[in-house]
Amino acid sequence: RSAVEELNVLVFQTGFFNRNSVPVNEMRGVALDFDQLPIIIMNSKDSVSARIFTIMHELGHLILRQSGLSNFRNFQELNDDELFCNEFAGELLVPSTFLLEEPEVKGHFDKRWDENELKGLADQYNVSKAVILRRLLQNNRTTKTFYLETLAKWRRNWEDSQDQPLSISGGGPKFHTKFVRCHGNRFVSSVLAAYDRDVIHSGQLSEYLGSKLNHIEAIRNDLAKVSG
Q1: Mean pLDDT of the region 32-57
Q2: Are 21 and 45 in contact (CB under 8 A)?
């Protein structure tokens, strides 16, 4: 995320404060193409590894100068643009030259892969098993049939998990920590810098950040920890 923000892209997350919460099957990511400060939005309800892929996938759309929404349907490579964005994200996160040299891959001659093999590779690259399986397909180390069957099984398992009641537990990150994660370092630091330079007043600061003024100092301190 920080690397993408260094490209002057604002990266946000939805749903941290039970506001603007969107089911993952409806929205995994959004790309908004602007000449200055294009925007990527990812879904905080998604897994961490899935969000990492989403950021790179949406960056691919920005490279194509496209705006749009991505969900499970889009990620199935229904057109050339989605295919490009998936391959772009996959190559960034799991380069073919590295993947094909992994002992687990070099010594694997079967086109089918079990869950533990995929999980081991996924953990090495900090991506999901689906990304690894897609990269194996793109490098002709599995079949399209096995790929689609496995994705369908994972999708069914995911849908079943959504039917389970949520466990409610206390704790978790403090408000200001979640706030910075939601809005992104680049956006928050830019707004605070504008306030410090008297470009905007305190009312605008509160409006742009969507936070009460009594939270600003804690947000600033949390941002300093991340940036330091």
Answers
A1: 92
A2: yes
Angstrom distance (rounded) from CA 200 to CA 209: 12
pLDDT (tens digit per residue) in 86-134: 999 999 999 999 999 999 999 999 999 999 999 999 999 999 999 999 9
User: Tokens for 143?
Assistant: 């079949």
Q: Is 59 helix (H, G, I), strand (E, B) or coil?
A: helix
Q: Scanning the structure block, which residue is given the tokens 């995320």?
A: 1
Coil, strand or helix at 11: strand
Query: Which residues lie closer than 8 Å to 33 by C-beta, 6 or more apart?
Result: 61, 62, 65, 66, 67
DSSP state of 16: T
The confidence band for 29, taking pLDDT boundaries of 50, 70 and 90, is: very high
- Would you place residue 169 in the very low, low, confident or very high pLDDT band (cuts 50, 70, 90)? very low
Torsion of CA 127, 51, 226, 15, to 10 degrees: -150
Which residue ranges make up each domain of the chain? 1-76, 94-163, 175-227
Q: Which residue has the higher pLDDT, 183 or 176?
A: 183
Sign of the torsion angle spanned by Cα atoms 203, 218, 51, 170: negative
